[in-house]
Structure formats: C-alpha cells, structure tokens
Write a structure and sequence with these properties.
about 200 residues, Helicase, Ruva Protein, domain 3, Dna Topoisomerase Vi A Subunit, Chain: A, domain 2, 2 domains, 4-stranded parallel beta sheet, two-stranded antiparallel sheet, 8 helices, 6 strands
Length: about 200
C-alpha cells in the first residue's frame, strides 16, 4: 500500500490533479504492461536532463534556440511576453501571430513568494536592449493572463520597459478576466492578437 500511496501523492502534486483523480491514474497504470511502465519510469528519470530551453525565449528547444526563434519567417522585432510555455503553445494554435515570444516562467505573485527577480524579466530587458541597437521598430506585446497576477505582471513590465522607448501593447480584451491563455479557444486568441492596443 505504501507504493500506491506514494505514487498517488506524487500525482496529486500536479496542477488540477486532486487525490481522487490521482488514485484513478494509479489504478489505470496498474493495467499497463511491464514495458509501458518501464518506459514511463525512464521518461520521468530523463525528464530533467533531456529537456533544453531556448537561450533567447525560454521555450522548449532541441538546440540552443527553439524552432520559433531560429525561423527566418518570424518577425524578430515583435515579442509576445507570456507567463508559461503552455500560453505560448496556445497562442501558436490559431497561426495568426508571426512574431517571437518570451516566456517569463510565471507571474508576479508576492503572496506565493514569486517576485519579479524570479522571472525572466532581466533577460527580456537585455534582449530588447540588444535588439534596440539594430532597429528602433520594436513591439513588445504583453500577453499575460487577464487575472490579478497577470495584470500585476503586465503593469510591472510596462514600468520596466517604458524607459527603453519601444512600442508596448497589450492583448485586446477578447479574453475574459480571470481566465487563462492555456484554455482560451483559437478564435478568442486570434481576435485578442488582432485587436491588441
């Protein structure tokens, strides 16, 4: 029973997985054959060492830069700032945004100990300053989630980026307050991007 409980406890640590859902997952895994369980275990063991992050935007990458940052088709002067990689993936789905991204790694949330220093804000400023040497035509799109933490993060970023003399826009209010980019539908995201201000 200790093995079962330990695995259930680990699954319960995942977002949106409660104890009952974790129990269902472990019970389902009991029906897997040995090869599947071994492969699952190897995937978990290799999780940390096998994943690279883009040196420019902090998205998943197979090389130093991700496929988006290294693409010659993407507009490198348009940078959408998102909280998480899942937000980036959601914005990519509609296929209307042709710029690049910057993944912060979360949102400012002092109550949970997430202060601006823990996010990739210094890296964003450095990236913009280096790009500014090449062109004055830069747009940073603040694509944080429309909730309290996302709004706090966007306001903080606006203040930090204002002295760099670049265009700063926000996603249009097609996204409902309190919602998450990760779960927004493609049409809503496409409209939010199209009507950003």
């Amino acid at each position: 029973m200790d093995k079962f409980k330990k695995l259930t406890d680990f699954f319960s640590k995942l977002p949106s997985i409660g104890p009952r859902q974790a129990t269902r997952l472990v019970l389902a895994m009991l029906n897997w054959d040995k090869e599947e369980l071994d492969e699952f275990a190897r995937s978990i063991v290799n999780l940390r060492s096998g994943i690279l992050f883009c040196s420019q935007c902090f998205n998943f990458a197979e090389n130093v830069k991700c496929a988006i940052c290294s693409s010659s088709r993407r507009d490198q002067t348009r940078i959408a700032v998102v909280e998480k990689i899942t937000d980036l993936q959601s914005m990519e789905k509609p296929g209307v945004y042709q710029g690049v991204y910057h993944v912060l790694g979360g949102a400012v949330n002092p109550a949970e100990g997430i202060l601006p220093e823990r996010l990739k804000i210094a890296e964003l400023k450095s990236r913009v300053m280096n790009l500014r040497k090449l062109t004055p035509d830069i747009e940073v799109i603040l694509a944080t989630n429309p909730n309290a933490e996302g709004e706090t993060t966007a306001l903080y970023l606006e203040e930090e980026l204002k002295p760099l003399d670049i265009k700063i826009t926000r996603l249009a209010r097609g996204l409902a307050a309190g919602s998450s980019l990760e779960y927004a539908d493609e049409v809503t995201l496409a409209n939010a991007l199209k009507h950003r201000r």
